[in-house]
Amino acid sequence: MNGKTNNVKKYNGKLNVIGNQIQCLRIEKHLSLYQLSNMLQLIGIDIPKPSLQNIESGKRIVKEYEFYAICKVLDVPMEKMLENFINELESQ
Asked: What are phi and psi for residue 77, nearest 5 degrees?
């Protein structure tokens, strides 16, 4: 270990609530992880393919600026990306 403690809270066993939505939208738009990574780089956000893969699988936290950029390149409102999460919280 490197001396750090892993005290990150998970929601339903994942580090983010939008990974599945990103994957669904990416596939719906016929984009590969590599293509999505390139689209993000064109607007100045560097998220390599392996990192995107980890985001989609819930193994990586999404920073707020990354969240906005992903929504922008996938052409989806941030609220829509969070819709399933919001509905789940409101139904409890």
From this structure: -65, 150
Q: What is the pLDDT of residues 43-66, one digit of tens each?
A: 999 999 999 999 999 999 999 999
Which pLDDT score, from 0 to 100, does residue 20 have? 94
- Residue 62 corresponds to which tokens in the numbers above? 């999404």
Contacts of 26 (CB under 8 A, 6+ apart): 32, 33, 36, 56, 74
- Rounded alpha-carbon distances, angstroms, from residue 11 to 8, 15, 17, 52, 71: 10, 6, 7, 18, 21
Contact 15, 60 (CB under 8 A): yes
Instruction: State both tokens at 63.
Output: 């920073």
